[in-house]
Every structure is written in structure tokens, then in C-alpha cells.
Amino acid sequence: MVTKKQKETLREVLVKELSDIEERNRKSVHEMEDVMSNQRLEGDEADQSALIEQRNYALRLRDRDRKMINKLQASLRKFEDGSYGICDSCGLEISHDRLKTRPVASLCIECKLEQEQREERDKSIRRR
């Protein structure tokens, strides 16, 4: 059972992580704007390719951060409605150890394992 104090600690972790990611995104947007405004696709093909690859990498990181922001916000909403720490699939409580390891977890470990096995089966079927 997750105690009220443990939940509050987890909420603080979620809030801090959300704040950190949003700040990192603000900085990366400004850096990307600076790079793109100061550098056009000039130079040889290798220089152009390196610039494009650098931009694509930054965009992939921002996309990953966007997905994490969505998970963090969803977890914080669950605190508001009282459903934080409850498995979305089976409705049982998610263990404190799992939440401590992954505060945005929405599935208990058993349901997460089942989901991963299902995804793996689906991948193998699609490969055929």
C-alpha cells in the first residue's frame, strides 16, 4: 500500500520532472531558432547533412519530451481525481516500488508485462 506521504513525495517528483523538461524545451527551442536563423544550408554536402542530422536529432528529443510531458500531466491529473497509483487495466493498486521507479506508470507490473507480451505477439504476426 502506498502511504499518503509516499504519494506526496511521488507528486513532488512528477512536478519537478515536468518543470525540468519544460525548461529544457524552452532552452532547446531558443537554441534551435538561433542555429536555424544563423545557419543556412551552406557549405558542402557533408556540412549540410550534419546540420540536417543535428536538427532532426533535436526534433526527436523534443518529441520524446512532449510524450513524457503528456504522461507527467496525466499522472498529475490522476492526483487531482484520486486515481493516482491505480492500474488503468485491472483497477488494483500499483506497488510503491514500481511508482518509485517509474512515477508515470499507469499499469501495475503484471498488466504491463501482459501488454508487452501482447505487443511482441502482434509484432511477430505482422512480420509474417
In brief:
Helices cover 76% and strands 0% of the residues. It has 128 residues and is mostly helical. The chain has a single domain (4-86, 93-106), classed as Four Helix Bundle (Hemerythrin (Met), subunit A) (Up-down Bundle).
Structural write-up:
- There is one protein chain.
- With 128 residues, this protein is mostly helical.
- The protein has one domain (4-86, 93-106): DksA, coiled-coil domain (Four Helix Bundle (Hemerythrin (Met), subunit A)).
- 76% of the residues lie in helices and 0% in strands.
- It is flat, with a radius of gyration of 20 Å.
- The termini are far apart.
Please write out the topology.
Elements: H1 4-38, H2 45-81, H3 96-101, H4 109-127
**Can you identify the CATH class?**
Mainly Alpha
Indicate the CATH topology: Four Helix Bundle (Hemerythrin (Met), subunit A)
Distance between the termini: 44 Å
Q: DSSP helix count?
A: 4
Order of helices and strands: HHHH
- State the helicity in percent bands: over 70%
What are the key terms here?
128 residues, mainly alpha, Four Helix Bundle (Hemerythrin (Met), subunit A), 4 helices, flat
